[in-house]
Write a structure and sequence with these properties.
The protein is α/β, with parallel strands linked by helices and 238 residues long. It contains eight helices and seven strands. Strand 4, helix 3 and strand 5 form a beta-alpha-beta unit. Helix 1 runs parallel beside helix 2, helix 4 runs parallel beside helix 6 and helix 6 packs antiparallel against helix 7. The longest helix has 17 residues.
Length: 238
């Protein structure tokens, strides 16, 4: 499930791209497809990094890459082990809602980004997320816990405070919103809810097969129902 719209980003050969909070490596793998880039995934969860490594090895085995390199690092967003102004693109997808010290996280994201280059951050959209919180007290303790809900202006202000300028925004994954509402309604940890399991199979089928009609429906509904808010920023020249 790719949240970032890479078509909005002018990715050039030899770019160094950081996917922080990479999880199983979906955005690292997507970045690795661009010609001659260096795609780095970082996460604090070792098991997720193992999944990301396996995913990237599959890319290599199938030749689904741009001929560049990939790497993985165990690191948290509040203390990135990289030099200042090191990356040409930084991606932080569905991470900040988990982080207690989001100011220091924002500072680190921007510190390692080169001036004049792009940062992409996605978080759960306010109103779909607020319904999830209302439906289930367990939800905020699932997946390491969502400890805050961002409004659009708050997210933009948080990042612009550290030297980037917001230039674009969109919403993503509208068809995932009802799934999470259903999941929260029956209980996030339940695995025997037939309707939730059926919806999950539908979403998995959509991710694997990418049918055009479903993709069109998702894009049509994103402005209204999109679960993720995706914001694009450019670091100001120093």
């Amino acid at each position: 499930m790719i949240t970032v719209d890479f078509n909005r980003l002018d990715i050039k050969a030899h770019y160094r791209i950081l996917d922080i909070g990479c999880g199983s490596g979906r955005h690292t793998g997507a970045a690795y497809r661009f010609k001659n880039v260096v795609a780095i995934g970082a996460d604090i969860n070792h098991a997720e990094l193992v999944e990301a490594k396996n995913r990237l090895k599959i890319h290599d085995r199938l030749g689904e890459n741009g001929g560049g390199m990939w790497g993985l690092a165990m690191a948290g967003v509040n203390a990135l082990p990289f030099k200042d102004n090191f990356f040409d693109l930084v991606i932080c997808s569905e991470v900040l809602e988990h982080i207690a010290e989001d100011e220091s996280a924002a500072r680190e994201l921007i510190r390692v980004l080169k001036p004049g280059h792009n940062l992409v951050v996605s978080v759960p959209r306010f109103w779909p997320e607020r319904i999830c919180w209302a439906l289930s007290s367990e939800y905020t303790n699932s997946n390491n816990g969502h400890i805050r809900i961002y409004r659009k202006k708050k997210l933009i202000a948080l990042l612009e405070n550290w030297g980037v300028k917001h230039w674009a925004l969109h919403y993503a994954h509208s068809l995932h919103t009802p799934y999470w509402w259903l999941k929260c309604w029956v209980g996030p940890k339940r695995e025997d809810a037939s309707l939730v399991n059926l919806y999950h199979r539908f979403l998995s089928w959509d991710i694997m097969k990418k049918p055009k009609l479903v993709s069109w429906m998702d894009k049509l509904l994103n402005p209204i129902l999109g679960k993720s808010l995706v914001a694009y920023f450019r670091k100001q020249d120093q």
